[in-house]
Write a structure and sequence with these properties.
about 200 residues; 2 domains; four-stranded mixed sheet; three-stranded antiparallel sheet; 9 strands; about 45% helix
């Protein structure tokens, strides 16, 4: 093997196959599952739980197919408990929602979040927003206003929780809108949002 080939192999990202559709993707683009000590199939969104991992594309279709074809049991070579599409989908929804909230809180603590109508409007116009969170109970008029503003600025829009929850996540009182500045928090948040939308049927 040539030095160039070794270098290419060293620099390439690990690939894994989806147990549902069989496609090969970068490991970080797939959902990882492990078998807990009690034999329960467990989603590992962080990718750091001990044990052998099995993978699925981050969508209910591939997950359901892998379960239907008993491919998790074949991969682990052990009986698998908890391999129910509905319960696993509900668990993934809960986990990914909490992870998005966690990233938003971390971004706020790092001073990378600005909130409130005036601040967000100014920041959006100045190109200082990488993601825009709007509260689920925001008025219809305000929702339309910020949706149009986000579309015009090419900023991804997320409706994750109500005003009380959004404010609490960023250490404020009730907030209708909050924006995350471009930078290091955006990429991992977008990955979680892809999973979120897949498992919530396209909702934001």
């Amino acid at each position: 093997m040539s030095r160039r080939q070794r270098s290419a192999m060293k620099g390439s990202k690990p690939q894994r196959s989806c147990l549902g559709c069989g496609s090969s993707r970068e490991k970080g683009a797939l959902l990882r599952f492990v078998l807990a000590p009690d034999g329960v199939l467990t989603p590992d969104l962080k990718g750091n739980l001990p044990g052998r991992g099995a993978y699925s594309c981050p969508n209910p279709g591939c997950l359901g197919l892998a379960i239907k074809k008993k491919r998790f049991a074949a991969t682990f070579k052990l009986p698998v408990a908890g391999a129910d599409p509905e319960s696993l989908t509900a668990e993934i929804r809960l986990l990914v929602t909490e992870r998005i909230k966690g990233y938003l809180s971390l971004a706020a603590k790092a001073g990378r979040v600005f909130s409130g109508g005036d601040a967000v409007t100014g920041g959006m116009r100045g190109g200082k927003a990488g993601l825009l969170f709007i509260a689920t109970d925001l008025s219809e008029e305000s929702r339309k206003k910020f949706t149009a503003m986000a579309a015009h600025a090419g900023v991804e829009l997320v409706a994750l929780c109500d005003m009380a929850c959004l404010g609490a996540l960023i250490g404020k009182e009730n907030r209708g809108v909050a924006a995350v500045e471009p930078g290091g928090f955006i990429a991992p948040m977008r990955r979680e949002l892809e999973i979120y939308r897949n498992f919530f049927d396209g909702e934001v």
